[in-house]
Design brief:
- The chain is mainly α.
- The chain has one domain: 3-Layer(aba) Sandwich (Rossmann fold).
- Helices cover about 45% and strands about 10% of the residues.
- The protein contains five helices and three strands.
- β1, α3 and β2 form a beta-alpha-beta unit.
- The longest helix is centred in the N-terminal third of the chain and has 17 residues.
């Protein structure tokens, strides 16, 4: 070890209790079942209607998300722009005509962090959005709110 270098810190102690993995999995799945029992079907139907109308009217669908919801927003655009136009095997484009116009603002890490760093986090979506959105376009914000 070179002079002046810090001694490596000790690793975290191992858990002394044995985790019951089966019990944890069952508990997790029980929680998921409870969530799905309470899914607001009418809200999902409204979202689908907005997306179908955006498609019919050639509107853009622009998504964004914060934290883990950034991947949800990105995945949503992937579904709209790829998965609905390819075969079940995903190896052939079967819809050649009209397609969804969709983009996710948090897919460009450089743009997102550039705005957050230079102008503040409150600008990381609003400023890039200003360059893309038209009044007629649909915007989707992925977030979590307790019901």
């Amino acid at each position: 070890m070179s002079e002046g270098a810090k001694k490596p810190e000790k690793s975290l102690p191992r858990r002394r209790t044995k985790v019951n993995i089966e019990k944890e999995i069952k508990s997790y799945l029980s929680g998921i079942r409870e969530v799905f029992k309470n899914v607001p079907i009418n809200t999902i139907e409204e979202i689908v209607q907005v997306l179908l109308k955006a498609y019919e009217d050639d509107k853009k669908v622009i998504t964004m998300g914060n934290g883990g919801h950034a991947s949800t927003a990105s995945h949503h655009v992937n579904d709209l722009t790829k998965h609905i136009i390819v075969s079940d095997e995903k190896n052939e484009v079967i819809v050649k005509e009209k397609r969804f116009k969709a983009l996710c603002l948090n897919d460009s890490i450089a743009t997102l962090t550039g705005w957050a760093n230079d102008a503040g986090y409150e600008s990381c979506f609003s400023e890039p959005l200003a360059g893309w959105v038209e009044e007629r376009d649909e915007r989707g914000y992925f977030s979590w709110e307790k019901m």
